Amino acid sequence: MSTLHQRLDYSRLSADLFKKYLDFSMAFRIDETLALLVDIRASQLNGCAFCVDMHVKQARMHAERELRLHHVAVWRESPLFTPKERAALAWTELLTHIEPEGVSDAAFEEVREHFSEEELSQLTFRVAAINGWNRMNVAFRTPPGSKDKMFGLDKAGLN
Question: Taking the complete model, does pTM exceed 0.70, yes or no?
């Protein structure tokens, strides 16, 4: 079994861009629980171990129930999510793996039943942001937990 090593530390090498992207990612006005569910689901779909690790720790620090965290991967079959959370998770999946034909009017109308125009705009920016983080961390193999102290996640008590 091979051990993956971080290829480079983009947060150090491009510190100014890292800070700006981090500021952008923190600017959204979206419910924190919903935001973390979105972040976890996109990170699962993108295979980003660093981000799954980070956002699960953040969710636990925000008192998210452990069982719900386990159910994010199977949210369609789980009774633990509200209709609004289900709509956000469906939207996250659609935008994370955009089909060649794009996003259908039916899918758009389905998510619009649960979000105002402003909320949907904020949610879409959130999905775009986490997908960007996932791509950076997958590309450079950022090890899970390697930035816990920087983000205060060492206080989560999960290691």
Answer: yes
Residue among 118, 123, 132 nearest 32 (CA): 123
Whose tokens are 């205060």? That residue is 152
From residue 85, give the alpha-carbon distance in Å to each of 9, 10, 47, 103, 133: 33, 32, 21, 19, 21
Amino acid at residue number 49: A
H helix and E strand count, the chain: 9, 0
The CA R_g of the chain, rounded to the nearest whole Å, is 16
Q: Say how far residue 89 (Cα) sits from the centre of its chain.
A: 10
Q: Output b/e per residue, 18-54; b: 16+ Cβ within 10 A.
A: eeebeeebeebebbeebbbbbbbbbbbebebbbbbbb
Distance CA 110, CA 38 (A): 17
Residue-range domains of the chain with CATH: 30-154 (1.20.1290.10)
Average pLDDT of the residues in 50-75: 96
pLDDT band (50, 70, 90) for residue 1: very low
- The Cβ of residue 137 has, within 10 Å, a number of other Cβ atoms equal to 27
Q: What one-character-per-residue DSSP string does 70-99 give? A: HHGGGTTT-SSS-HHHHHHHHHHHHHHS--
- Please answer whether residues 142 and 6 qualify as being in contact, where contact means their C-beta atoms are separated by less than 8 angstroms: yes
